[in-house]
Design a protein that fits this description.
Elements lengths: L5 E4 L16 E5 L2 H7 L6 E4 L15 E4 L8 H11 L4 E5 L6 H16 L3 E5 L3 E7 L2 E4 L6 E6 L3 E8 L5 E7 L8 E2 L5 E7 L1 E7 L3
Parallel strand pairs: 1-2, 1-5, 2-3, 3-4, 5-6
Antiparallel strand pairs: 6-7, 7-14, 8-13, 9-12, 9-14, 10-11, 10-13
C-alpha cells in the first residue's frame, strides 16, 4: 500500500501538469498556488496563506477549506502549509511551485526541506529538471537505472561520516562543510548507488526523471 502523500502547490514557477493524487493523499494550495490548480481543474483540500498573491472571492468556496493567515507573521505560507500537513499525520511531502521566481523564496523552501528531514519526514521540492531533497543522519539510494548528475551540499555547518557509493567520484567517511561545495556535480554510473551521512543534514539534488 502506497504511503499517503501531502502535495503542496506554491506560487512559484510550475513546469508541468500537477500529479494526480490518490485516495488518502492531501492537496494544499499555498496562497497563489491555487491559481495553478484552478488552471488544471484540480481542487485542493485546503487553501492557506495571507493571500498577497491570490485574491479570494468575498464568498468562500464550498469546495475546500480556507485558512487566512495574517499578513504580518514569521512563518511563510509554505511553512504554514507544511505544518498543516504534519498536524494531519503526513510524513511525505511533494512541493511544486516552490522554486523559480524570487531566489529568497527558493532558499526558504530548501530550508523547509531540511527541517522536514530533521523532524523525521521526507520532503521533495520539484524544480524544472531536478528534485531537491534532504537527508538527516540517514541515506538515500538510487537504482542502477539512475542517470545524470547528482549534487550534495552540507546544510548544517558540518556533515560528518559522508559516504557516496556507486557514483563516479566516491566519498568515504568524508566531512562536508556548508562553506565549500565538495559534493557538487557527481555522476551516476549505471550501478546501484547511495548517499549516506552519519551526522548532519545534506541537501541532495538529482534529475527529476529518475
Amino acid at each position: 500500500m502506497q504511503t499517503p502523500i501531502c502535495y503542496i502547490f506554491g506560487a512559484g514557477d510550475h513546469y508541468c501538469p500537477p500529479p494526480i493524487p490518490v485516495s488518502g493523499d492531501l492537496v494544499i494550495a499555498a496562497d497563489g498556488g491555487l491559481t495553478y490548480l484552478e488552471q488544471h481543474g484540480l481542487a485542493p483540500d485546503l487553501v492557506i496563506g495571507d493571500f498577497d498573491s491570490y485574491t479570494l472571492p468575498e464568498a468562500p468556496s464550498p469546495d475546500f477549506k480556507t485558512v487566512v493567515l495574517p499578513k504580518v507573521k514569521d512563518d511563510t505560507d509554505m511553512v504554514a502549509a507544511l505544518r498543516e500537513g504534519k498536524n494531519r499525520g503526513y510524513r511525505i511531502f511533494h512541493i511544486y511551485g516552490g522554486t523559480g521566481g524570487r531566489l529568497d523564496h527558493t532558499l526558504a523552501n530548501i530550508q523547509c526541506i531540511a527541517d522536514l528531514a530533521q523532524k523525521g519526514c521526507k520532503g521533495y521540492l520539484f524544480d524544472r529538471d531536478t528534485v531537491i531533497t534532504a537527508i538527516h543522519n540517514d541515506k538515500i539510494t538510487f537504482t542502477a537505472t539512475a542517470y545524470g548528475t547528482v549534487s550534495v551540499f552540507a546544510h548544517t555547518e558540518t556533515c560528518t561520516g559522508v559516504y557516496e557509493r556507486g557514483l563516479k567520484y566516491p566519498l568515504t567517511d568524508a566531512t562536508l562543510k556548508n562553506t565549500y561545495p565538495l559534493g557538487v556535480s557527481n555522476e551516476f554510473t549505471g550501478v546501484n548507488s547511495e548517499i549516506y551521512v552519519r551526522s548532519g543534514t545534506l541537501i541532495v539534488i538529482y534529475p527529476k526523471d529518475i
